[in-house]
Amino acid sequence: MEASTGTGTGTGTGTAAASTGQGGKAPVTRGRRPAWLPWIAGGVAVLACLGLQSQLYSGQERTVTTVFMFVTLAVGWNLIGGFTGYACFGQVGFFGLGAYSTVVLMVHGGLSFWVAWPVSAVVAAVFAAVIGLPLLRLKGHYFAVATLGVAEGLRELVTNIPRWTGGGAGITIPSTGGEAPTPWLGNDGFYLLFLGLGAVAALVAALISRGRTGYALRAINQDEDAAAAMGVNTTWAKTVAFGVSAALTGAAGSAYAFQQVTIYPDRLFDVNITVLMVVMVVIGGSGTVTGPILGALGIAVVSEYLRQHFPQMHSFTLGVLIIVAVILLPQGLVNFVRDALRTRDFSLLSNVRRYRL
Prior knowledge:
Layout: H1 12-19, H2 37-53, H3 58-83, H4 92-108, H5 113-135, H6 141-159, H7 162-165, E1 171-172, H8 186-210, H9 212-229, H10 234-260, E2 262-263, H11 265-268, H12 271-284, H13 291-309, H14 314-328, H15 333-343, H16 348-356
Antiparallel strand pairs: 1-2
């Protein structure tokens, strides 16, 4: 019969081909993983982070807190840059907008941080939706440059209204005494705050990825015109991704401002923050849920190790390692592992030839 020859089509093809013993690698048949497995793994990871807190020194706790913040930022950028394929180079603008929204609400409005925090995330999301209507009509480097211009414009705006933002001299949130709208949370409090924010960001990304919006975003990434022709509301999908991405980034900026107490526009709108987001997503695996998380963890661990053992060569060595990682894993770690498990080929050289040559 046709299926027994290993040359036919249909469900029997893979099994027959695997049993032919002919040259070449037989395809590997793998069962689908249980749908609940990623949720269990995520819950275990959060519990592990909670257990880790008591084992950390003060400096280590602050470092891990920063890692949680960058997990949130990387996951947020991945929604628009990874899933949708719109590389936003001005993502730090939402980070700064969330931070200064919180400062204005707490310093001038006297609001509690727990009120200012979600409001700041909404402000960032609404701002992204408004500017996204014209900007998301652009593609490629035009969109990237336009968003970078928006971030620079926000930095200039904040710098030039010192009455509300303190301008270039910075502004301080009252964190102690009777003038403090909300007492400073301390290292333990901010550890839990950023851990919770990172977990929420990962949950949001997972829900979007598995839903209709996620499929729409991937279709846009592959071929936006074809997606529109198939009935996908591309404008709505892109705006939702941009807004949710901005909300997560703004929430992280809001919490960061409260943690730092005193903030400055040059630090909050530093383009290097966006660069780190992009690098973490690219190395971890663009367009995946776990990729940005692993990328953030990997970059943070390597960076901290180099900072402690090779302080004079920290930046240079980290840059070289990032370049090597991008060359060897152009599709990111998660996508490499996924491809390797499917093909049973774990060779990095084969991976480079597949994607680079």
